[in-house]
Amino acid sequence: MRGPYDTPKRSHVIKTRLDDDEYKFFLRKCQVYGMNQSEMIRASLDKLVINPVIKFSPVNKELLSKVDELITEGKRIGNNLNQIARALNSDSFDPGITTEIRRALGDLAEWKYTILQEVGSAKRHWQRSNI
């Protein structure tokens, strides 16, 4: 049977402060799961889920504006593709529609390229400003 502080492979200590409500909640969880405080913290790390926090900066506002424009453009292209798909599935299919299909596919490829350029530009700008 090992002693309470016999932790040869654990040499790092983590300290934190909790308010009264947080501490009561923590102790209640320890009791419910039958764990001591250290075990609870270690088990919590394995199941930790952190929701990302998006910080808004001038770069992010600009990026959000560009993304909004691209979403609008994507909806337009998607609408065109839906119309083409309906035409292809109808009995009155016009073989001349292939020109329209090629134009829509070109729009889609151009839209994808624009997205990649805008995101890459914003990423480089953000990286330069955070150095």
Question: Any overview of this molecule?
Answer:
The chain is mostly helical and 131 residues long. The chain has two domains: 1-50; 58-129. 67% of the residues lie in helices and 0% in strands. The chain has helices at residues 20-33, 37-46, 58-89, 98-129. Helix 3 (58-89) packs antiparallel against helix 4 (98-129). The longest helix has 32 residues, at 58-89. The protein is elongated and about 80 Å long. The two termini are 52 Å apart.
Structure at a glance:
By secondary structure, the chain is mainly α. The protein contains four helices and no strands. The model has no long low-confidence stretch (mean pLDDT 77).
Strand content: under 5%
Whole-angstrom Rg: 28 Å
Report low-confidence residues grouped into runs of 5 or more. none
The tally of structural domains comes to: 2
Instruction: Please tell me the overall pLDDT.
Output: 77
Number of distinct helices: 4
Helix content: 55-70%
* Number of DSSP-assigned strands: 0
Listing every helix as H and every strand as E from the N terminus to the C terminus, the arrangement reads HHHH
Please identify the structural class as seen in this structure.
mainly alpha
Query: Terminal Cα separation, in Å?
Result: 52 Å
Largest beta sheet, briefly?
A: none
Give the CA-based shape.
elongated
